[in-house]
Amino acid sequence: MPRFDLERFGILLQGSPRHADVLLCTGPITRQMRDRVIRIYEQCPEPKFVIAVGTCASSGRPFYGDGNYNVLGGVDKVIPVNMYIPGCPPRPDAITYGVLKLLASVDPKLEKLLHEFEQTIPGIEASVQLADSVEQAS
Amino acid sequence: MSEVAEKIMAQVREDYAGEILDATTMRRHELVFTVAPDQIVEFTEFVVQYGWWHLSTITGVDEGEEIAILYHLCGEEPPAATIRTAVPKAAARLQSITSVIPGATMYEREVHDLFGVQFEGHPRLDRLVLPDDWPEGVYPLRIEEIEKRAAKDKEEKEENG
Amino acid sequence: MGRITFPIGPQHPALKEPESFKITAEGERVVDADVRLGYNHRSIEAACQHRNYVRGQYLCERICGICSHIHCNTFARAVEELLDLEVPMRAKYIRTIVAELERIHSHLLWLGVAGHEVGFDTLFMYVWRDREIVQDLLELISGNRVNYGMATIGGAKMDLTPEIVSKCMEGCKLLLERTEYYKGVATTEGTFLKRVEGVGMLSQQQARELGAVGPTSRASNVPNDIRHDFPYDAYDQIQMEFEPITSDLCDVLGRTIVRVLETEQACRICLDLLPRLPEGDIQVRARPRVPEGETLVRCEAPRGELIYYMRSNGTDKPARVKVRTPSLANWPAALAMLDGAYVADVPITIASIDPCMACTDR
Questions:
Q1: C176-232 pLDDT, tens digit each
Q2: A contacts of C43 (beta carbons < 8 Å)
Q3: Does residue A15 sit within a domain?
Q4: Residue A7 lies in a domain
């Protein structure tokens, strides 16, 4: 079976934002996508979190700036982001760790699992960045 | 230029009934034929029967006063051919070649979107890549727009330090 | 019967990237289909005119994640033509090997996604597990799973040591075995065949007229393959028999078979080139200022013909970079395939051209 698996942590991929707690966003925000992203974010029920996966989702670079006319920036230009996972592309382990770390920051029961994951890949703590405010949940 | 390519170029010049303004090469595998804008459909029809049946893409290049439109065609072996024509920027209209090559629809839409060239006879000249709320009459790949953006970027960089 | 028009997208569980379709259906049959592109338009061509060639290559590599190397490679080849630079043969071999490994990775990715679109999730899981073999090889060679950056302007970035070469050969041999298995699945598995046989028909004449490229056109018996017709890099050094792989089925099954056979062919090309890597440097120095000129380079990306037109003006920034990706060329063919199709077959028909919206919109 595939080597990288989020489902073993009890996380399922859903087709509709109305069934989701966490929104994973990749890629920079273009002018055409701006309203659609906001609408999808509003369709997610509270409590909800947003993870920006990739350098272009976190900051818009390299597409933003220097001659571009259609990119507004990273995901945080339009919706509040709770976790940044930079990388071009980020490794699957980093994405798994980022999702786990976000969930562990709101659910202390997952902290032990998080520490075990950190033991398996030394240095993975540096690959993700939690945003300052995670009060969406509680 | 290889011998084969020279022969083919000479043959095309001889066989074509209308006027070819110029015939040169561009690097290794490419012959370039320049024609006037009103000859474009006729020449494309002629050249397609010559063996260059696949349209790779249509490129627009802003050359200051004129916008050059390049039609890149290829067949099953080198050399390939590019047809070059130019329209004045102030009155950028050209006949569409979708009657000869139906696959040209998307490429002509893109040149229309980004350079503002009107293709007469095109079945549907809608937006292709620009967003719905993009202002009319602003063509982002024209040199004036590029210079405007460069000036804006420079200002922003100086502001942010 | 009344007609109903419904949208699919821009965000939809069946779609991997944003694109908006308007499907008009009469009962279960599609009578009209339209697509709105541009959700991913990142103004790459305009941005390249503001950046020097090195930054432009970095940006163009990120047009697409799945076919990143071929963009990097073709940009480098275009600049090398403008500079009249001859790249060392070892670098050409390395670029070709990475391009073929990328083709394997792209086709296996597609096969998994196609399995998922027809509801065959077991195939999806199996194929993506086997895709990890080629991802490991690419990470070993370049350090990254996509966006390898292996082609620089002037050669290849990193050399292949003898250990890497032997690991790659082992990996390719293993992939050959696995591809045999998938060939069997694609041609004999009844549940899969019922979903893909006769679906998404595209006649040979339609494929030629609408400008389809890559496996989409080769599955309609149009034998164009840039590696064979306009050889570049080390493709003219291949010693084994190398012909474009075609099929006359003209449907999604034909495209599946073409892609699986191309994966096998790509493994064999790697096994042919790896033991014969010539000695020598992997890079020559390139000047930052490119003399005036224009050039056109073509290559065969995993999805079809990729073409770069570049014009230089004597400075270190290009005057025009034009990219036409194969996904854009295949859209008229995809819309033609949807005519008369069942609504339930729409996802797999669209997926059969291997659409990459990031490539289409640039």
A1: 999 999 999 888 888 899 888 889 899 999 999 999 999 999 999 998 899 998 898
A2: 63, 67-71
A3: no
A4: no
Distances (CA, A) of B40 to B29, C89, C210: 22, 41, 19
Nearest CA in chain B to A30: B131
Contact A31/B at CB under 8 A: yes
Containing domain of residue A76, as a range?
20-129
**Residue C181 maps to a domain:** yes
Residues of C in contact with B82 (CB under 8 A): 296
Q: How many distinct structural domains can be found in chain B?
A: 1
**Distance set, CA B101 to CA B92, B98, B104, C111 (Å):** 21, 5, 6, 31
CATH number at B39 reads: 3.30.460.80
Choosing among A29, A33, A55, which should be mutated to test the C contact, i.e. which has the most C CBs within 10 A? A33
Residue corresponding to tokens 């390139």:
C286
This model of the complex carries an ipTM of 0.91
Evaluate if residue C233 carries a pLDDT over 90.
no
> What SS3 state is found at B64?
coil
Answer whether B48's CB lies under 8 Å from B73's CB: yes
* CATH number, domain with residue A122: 3.40.50.12280
pLDDT tens-digit readout, C77-117: 999 999 999 999 999 999 999 999 999 999 999 999 999 98
B56 and C324 within 8 Å at the Cβ level: the answer is yes
C65 close to A (CB below 8 A): yes
**Most A CBs within 10 Å: which of C40, C60, C61, C126, as the mutation test of the A interface?**
C40
Q: For the whole model, what pTM was predicted?
A: 0.93
Measured between alpha carbons, how far is C201 from C14 in angstroms, rounded to an integer? 20
CB contacts, 8 Å: C65 with chain A: 89
